[in-house]
Amino acid sequence: MFEEENFVEKLVPAVEQQLESNDTRYVKTTFDRLVTNGEVAEEAKMLIALCLADESNRMFIDKRDFDVDRYQELLNALPEVPEG
User: Fold this and answer.
1) Rounded distance, CA 51 to CA 71, Å?
2) Which whole number is the average pLDDT over 64-73?
3) Taking the alpha carbons of 69, 53, 30, 33 in that order, is the dihedral positive or negative?
C-alpha cells in the first residue's frame, strides 16, 4: 500500500496541470464539486490523482491507450474511490 500511496502522490503535479488545462476542464469541474461538498483542496487533488493512477494502471495491465471516458467515469464517481 505504501508504494501505491507514493505513486498517487507523484501524480498530484499532473492533476494540478490538468486543473489548469482547457483540454481537461472536466478535472476542474470535479475538483470544484469536491471542494464545494467539503473536501479540503489537497484531499480533492489526491482523490483525483487516485483516479488517474487507477486509469494509468489499467492502461499498463490491459496494454492499451489512456481511456478518457473511463477516467471521467472514475472522476464522476468521486468521492467514491476506485477499487483495485
Assistant:
1) 7
2) 97
3) positive
Give 30's contacts (C-beta < 8 A, 6+ positions apart): 48, 75, 76, 78
Q: What is the pLDDT of residues 22-66, one digit of tens each?
A: 999 999 999 999 999 999 999 999 999 999 999 999 999 999 999
Is the whole-model pTM more than 0.85? yes
Q: Residue 15 and residue 27: Cα distance in Å, rounded?
A: 8
Other CB atoms within 10 Å distance of the CB of residue 55? 20
Cis peptide upstream of residue 82 (ω within 30 degrees of 0): no
